[in-house]
Amino acid sequence: MPHTKHAICDFGLHKGEPYTKLPASFLTWMIGTNHRKREYANTELKRRERAATNQLTAPSK
Q: Biased-composition ranges for Basic and acidic residues (predicted)?
């Protein structure tokens, strides 16, 4: 699974933007069209889901 924290979109309307800032609709489009970088989109959407449900791992001290 690709790590999207620092991954940058390299195509289209959102070229140059980090995957963490892309609209969910764009990420969903990437998955739905079987885009070659759909795994980045899938990983980011899952990360957002975990964040929304407070399931992100807390940083270790």
A: 40-51
Question: Structure tokens of 35?
Answer: 């885009």
Please check whether residue 42 lies inside any domain of the structure: yes
Residue 38 lies in a domain: yes
pLDDT tens digits for 37-61? 999 999 999 999 999 998 766 555 5
Number of domains in the chain: 1
Instruction: Give the range of the structural domain holding residue 24, as residue numbers without chain letter.
Output: 1-50
Three-class HEC string of the chain: CCCCCCCECCCCCCCCCEHHHCCHHHHHHHHHCCCCCHHHHHHHHHHHHHHHCCCCCCCCC
